[in-house]
Amino acid sequence: MRRVWDLAVEVVRLEVALYACLWRWITRRPDVPAGARPIPYAQLSAPMVWLFVFGSGIEVIVIEVILRSLDQAWADAIRLPVLILGIWGVIWMIGLAAAYRTRPHLLTSEALYARSFALTDVAVPLSAIKKVSAVEQEVEGIRFVHKIEDRLVLAVSSRTNLRVELREHLTLPLRRPSRLWNLWDDERKVTVDSLAIWVDEPREVAALLTGVTTR
């Protein structure tokens, strides 16, 4: 029962975070603190997410029309729950799009904050960065966050294109979205020697990070 409860809490946290991102998007208030430079990474995911939104919206309408046309008691009984579930699915996908838009990676004078989806944050001190390079790579699976050997991977559509190598193995503070999306047990830290993420402009970001870490 404890595991079921913990999972339910994680799902609710994720749901609330998505709605918060959606509200930020509607009000045009991205989660970018003063003094931080945003590094966008939404470009790759946008076409796929909006395709799902469009397809799900059409599906909701078609199913609603079909159920209304059926002169059956069971159709009337399930019509409202199915409609609510369909609308929730559409809103969830729009929230996903909003999360990508309103929570970019961040660069401050002290650290690179790599982000993924609605809640994940990992802070990488600039002083710990050894090398940054634009390297595109595909990742197996559809999870947003992976730990592959000693590398932390924050993928978008199962791809990364920026590799951040650290000077040594480093235990980084981490906030993760849910046990559904991750493999390690500790929610607050992860020990790695490199980081792989997706950004919209990998060469520009690599040059930017190289410049600020070699000063």
Give a short synopsis of this structure:
The protein is α+β, with helices and mostly antiparallel strands and 215 residues long. The chain has helices at 2-26, 46-69, 73-102, 202-213; strands at residues 37-39, 105-107, 111-116, 120-125, 129-133, 137-138, 145-148, 151-154, 159-160, 162-175, 189-197. The strands form two sheets. Strands 1, 2, 3, 4, 5, 7, 8, 10 and 11 form a nine-stranded mixed sheet that branches. The chain has a two-stranded antiparallel ribbon with strand order 6-9.
Descriptive notes:
This protein has 215 residues and is an alpha+beta fold. 42% of the residues lie in helices and 27% in strands. It contains four helices and eleven strands; from the N terminus they run H-E-H-H-E-E-E-E-E-E-E-E-E-E-H. The strands form two sheets. Strands 1, 2, 3, 4, 5, 7, 8, 10 and 11 form a nine-stranded mixed beta sheet that branches. Strands 6-9 form a two-stranded antiparallel ribbon. The chain starts with a helix and ends with a helix.
| Beta strand count | 11
The overall average pLDDT, rounded, is: 86
Helix share, percent = 40-55%
Radius of gyration: 20 Å
Low-confidence stretches: 177-186
Class of secondary structure makeup: alpha+beta
Largest sheet: 9 strands, mixed
SSE topology string: HEHHEEEEEEEEEEH
- Choose one word for the global shape: elongated
List the main descriptive attributes of the protein structure presented here.
elongated, alpha+beta, 215 residues, single chain, 9-stranded mixed sheet, two-stranded antiparallel ribbon
